[in-house]
Amino acid sequence: MSGQDTSEVGHGHGHGHGHGHSRSRTVAGLLSRVGHAIRPHSHDTADKTDQALEASSKGMRVLAVSFAALMATALVQSVIVAVSGSIALLGDTLHNFADALTALPLAIAFSLGRRAATRRFTYGYGRAEDLAGIVIVLLIAASAALAGYEAVVRLMHPQDVEALGWVAAAGVIGFLGNEAVARYRIKVGREIGSAALVADGLHARTDGFTSLAVLLGAGGAALGFPIADPIVGLAITAAICFVLRDAAREIYHRLMDAVDPRLVEQAESILSGVPGVKGVGSVRLRWIGHALRAEVDIQVSDRLSLVEAHAVAVAAEHRLIHDLPRLTAATVHADPDGSDGIDHHAVLATHR
């Protein structure tokens, strides 16, 4: 997880905070800030760390429950597949098995994410969720390939579907099981800020509707069109491919450190409202598991001392951690904002 003590990731370089207050008020405020700087946000860090651990615990619970529910659904469907020979139902069953198995890499990722950062993994192990996402994408792709293959084989070698009533019932069971899991995953995923869990919930919801498509295959077979079953199987394969596309895009965004631009705008707004911040420079956010980290640049008055500027940087970090959802740590770099025209980063120009 990325809930390390914010004092370890630092507050950047302090360079000042200036207002037109009287000297006595400035000194009083400075003493207050210095006292806070000496003990930087211990309450915030502890709260955020506790929230992160609780988030992982909730994630583990939802994965265990959803795994059991989907495995039970898929096992019931597999029995009916063996009796009926329905290719549409086979495709849905394979997808439900794959969806149940996605809980395993996510569970491993949540477990790893609770480990403390080390000198090698200095940001912790939260990115294990992204690796789990890759495994999930591969499982979805495998289920699509197998379902499509079976549907094509059945089109080339048609055969009657037996126990149509049971096939229809299995489709309904698949829908109910997936919808229950989808609601649970999405609810908890949004509570703990896990995009992977929310995406997996949306995946389960899509699976529920593909289960209903099995009813179409059973209905077509009942009306004397046995070819309807493999055709619906191909349709289910296409639906799985759409889910695969969305899941792959989600994981790609996480691997590339993409965030919702509205989060950047919110961070900029928060920083602009901090007393002593005269301007906001670059704002960089990244997800590490289901927690956010930030690296930001602010401008402060060039007339302030190092201690005063550091106090402004501390206040900016403090406000960010409080007001930006899922942010567990921030590095704040303060630059002097003077009118002397001096480029304080000139020595770095050739390195940027």
Mind sketching the topology for me?
Layout: H1 6-9, H2 23-38, H3 42-84, H4 87-101, H5 103-113, H6 128-156, H7 164-192, H8 195-222, H9 228-255, H10 261-272, E1 279-288, E2 291-300, H11 306-323, E3 327-336
Parallel strand pairs: 2-3
Antiparallel strand pairs: 1-2
Helix pairs in contact: 2-11, 3-4, 3-5, 3-7, 4-6, 4-7, 4-8, 4-9, 5-6, 6-9, 7-8, 8-9
Gist of the model:
This protein has about 350 residues and is mainly α. Helix content is about 65%, strand content about 10%.
Written overview of the protein:
The chain folds into two domains: 6-38 and 259-351, Cation efflux protein, cytoplasmic domain (Alpha-Beta Plaits, 2-Layer Sandwich), CATH 3.30.70.1350; 46-255, Up-down Bundle (Alpha-lytic protease prodomain-like). The protein contains eleven helices and three strands, in the order H-H-H-H-H-H-H-H-H-H-E-E-H-E. It has helices spanning 6-9, 23-38, 42-84, 87-101, 103-113, 128-156, 164-192, 195-222, 228-255, 261-272, 306-323, and strands spanning 279-288, 291-300, 327-336. Helix 2 crosses helix 11 (306-323), helix 4 (87-101) runs antiparallel to helix 6 (128-156) and helix 4 (87-101) runs parallel beside helix 7 (164-192). Residues 1-50 have low confidence and may be disordered.
| Biggest beta sheet attributes | 3 strands, mixed
**Series of secondary-structure elements, N-terminal to C-terminal:** HHHHHHHHHHEEHE
- Stretches where pLDDT falls below 50 for ≥5 residues? 1-50
CATH topology of the largest domain: Alpha-lytic protease prodomain-like
